[in-house]
Structures are given as C-alpha cells and as structure tokens.
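Issue 218. Parser rejects a valid record. Input:
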Amino acid sequence: MPNEDDNTKKQGLSRRSVLGTTAALAAVGTTAAVGGLGLTRSAAISTAQAQTKSGAKHEVKPGELDEYYVFFSSGQSGEIRIIGMPSMRELMRVPVFNRCSATGWGQTNESRKILEEGLTPEYRELMKDRGGVYDNGDLHHPHPSFTDGTYDGRYLFANDKSNTRVARIRLDVMKCDKIVQLP
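Output the parser choked on:
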C-alpha cells in the first residue's frame, strides 16, 4: 500500500527548479558573451581598418548618383521601393496596390481609373458594394522589361499575390500606369 508521503511528493520539474536553472544558464551565457566580446571586438576593429585601407570605396557623397538601382517588392504594403546601391538609400516608394495619402494614389480619379479598369467583370460586380476597388495588395516579384534579351528600362512588372493582379510601372516617371486582373 502506498505511503501518504509518496502521494504528496511532486513528480517531474517544479517551477522553482526551472527558474533556478534558467537564471544560472543566463548568468553563464552573459559572462561568456561579455568575455568573448572583449576578444573579438579588437580583432573585428583591426580587420575593418585593414579592409577600408586596401578595399574599394563604397561611399556615395551627397549629390552623387548611385551606380545601381534596386527595385524591391514591399509585400503587403503594396508598393515598390527603389533603393540606391551601394549607398542603400531609399530613393522613392511607388504606390501600386495600396492607398497613399502623400501622393493621392488610390484616391484621385486618375489612379482609381487605373485600379478599376483592369478588373474582371465578376470582381467588378463583387466590388460594386465595396467601393469599386481593392484597397490593398501583396506586391511581389518586380521584374523589368527587356528587348532582345537585355533590359530596356521602360517598364517594371509586379504581381499581387492576394488578388491575382499584375501591374506595369513606367520607369521614366516611376508611376503605375496599368493594372490587369488575371482570371
């Protein structure tokens, strides 16, 4: 027959032992990290200094242009971001599938026409009771246009993963000029 003392004993882990073990591990980890930083920091500084003396210069001074421009998708914010390389400055945000109060995109007659005219008849009917246009999009995979296998710099195409649309952005003015919904 089991003893009453056996029934009152806790089995497994207790809260006190878990917290005590966690605190001890955190203290050991902090001590190791602080000691390790002292050693690696001086090595990192000397390596960085050596690289800047002999390496290429990647500084883009104010007023100078970047060598390359990168078109990033912004995902669920629905816009294209243009970044200069190597400065990594954000040069512009081009609203495509979203509303932008700064530029009026999605609110002006011109932009609403672009957002609405490429909808399929089924979605046009569906959106009639909801303001006539999607107010959001999930922009991905920007791809520049090309002619004869080389990029021509005329357009940038991007798709909306949440609403099956494809947009065309004119690169001479950095504005979206056409959106088509895929059936």
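Fixed in the parser; the record now loads. The chain has a mean pLDDT of 81.
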